[in-house]
Write a structure and sequence with these properties.
Largest sheet: 2 strands, antiparallel
Keywords: Membrane, Transmembrane, Transmembrane helix
Membrane topology: Multi-pass membrane protein
Helix content: 55-70%
InterPro entries: TET_plant (IPR044991), Tetraspanin/Peripherin (IPR018499)
Distance between the termini: 19 Å
Number of helices: 10
Strand order of the largest sheet: 1-2
Shape: elongated
Oligomer: single chain
Family: Belongs to the tetraspanin (TM4SF) family.
Order of helices and strands: HHHEEHHHHHEEHH
Strand content: under 5%
Subcellular location: Membrane
Number of domains: 2
Radius of gyration: 25 Å
């Protein structure tokens, strides 16, 4: 079956959209798998689901262009436009809620510390509003290799070496007490407790490997810092894909209006 020039353009656009939606799915899968390693479940599979829906819609557009099916082409233009709007809204929302960071630097330390009140209200709600959710995260962290890896370094890491080491946010916030406590270093996950505890987290610290600082606000903040970093990486890919989908959508809409015989911006486009 011979395809018109306009239908070829529509098919090409839908094919490029298919590649873009595959990128959304790949980014979502990476985001979900990364969170699994960090014991989080924040919007874990929604990006993947959005990508799969966009993939099906783009496939419908390709089939509609190839077989000159006006219903499928209209479906593609209508739903893809809505999906692009959803993507833009998602990017705006996540940019707002992940803008604030609770990260801060302590003099003489090679790693960062984290404060819970430095994050947005929406992100703080994820680790504070549902005690059962945090209980599950704590249990996962205790079973994970996050702090066990530090504990295995106890025999050959001095205090100065530890203070200059490069820790992940979770290792910094969950595997050791906050610096404000003034605890004495024994090993990466064992610290001596002074007589007074100036902040609440100090009283929550335990040298028990199953507890450590998992109940601390610093641990909650460290988890949010990890999620924020992961989401900002995914966001870069989504911004590029959303921009590409928008451009492809404009081309597809223009081509469809041309093949339907209706004027675009007051005149007809010749192919």
């Amino acid at each position: 079956m011979a395809m018109s020039k306009v239908n070829k353009v529509l098919a090409w656009v839908a094919l490029m959209a298919l590649l873009c939606t595959a990128t959304i799915i790949a980014a979502g899968i990476w985001f979900a798998s990364a969170q699994a390693g960090e014991c989080a479940r924040l919007e874990r599979w929604r990006v993947v689901i959005l990508g799969v829906v966009a993939l099906v819609v783009a496939l419908a557009g390709f089939v509609g262009a190839y077989w000159n099916n006006r219903f499928l082409l209209r479906f593609y233009l209508l739903v893809m436009g809505a999906l692009i709007a959803v993507l833009i809204a998602l990017l705006v929302f996540t940019s707002v809620v992940t803008h604030a960071s609770g990260e801060y630097k302590v003099l003489g330390r090679g790693y960062h510390e984290y404060r819970l009140d430095g994050f947005s209200t929406w992100m703080r709600g994820y680790v504070s509003d549902d005690p059962a959710r945090w209980e599950g995260i704590m249990s996962c962290l205790a079973d994970s290799d996050t702090c066990k890896k530090l504990a295995r370094q106890a025999g050959f890491v001095t205090a100065d070496q530890f203070y200059q080491s490069s820790l992940t946010p979770l290792q910094s916030g969950c595997c050791k007490p906050p610096p404000e406590c003034g605890f004495g270093y024994v090993s990466p996950t064992v610290w001596t407790n002074p007589t007074s505890a100036p902040v609440q987290d100090c009283g929550l610290w335990s040298n028990d490997p199953a507890q450590l600082c998992y109940q601390c606000d610093s641990c909650r903040a460290a988890l949010l810092a990890t999620l924020r970093s992961q989401w900002r990486k995914v966001k870069v890919a989504l911004i590029v894909v959303t921009a590409a989908l928008f451009i492809l959508y404009v081309v597809a809409w223009t081509a469809y209006r041309n093949v339907s015989g209706k004027p675009i911006f007051g005149r007809y486009y010749k192919w």
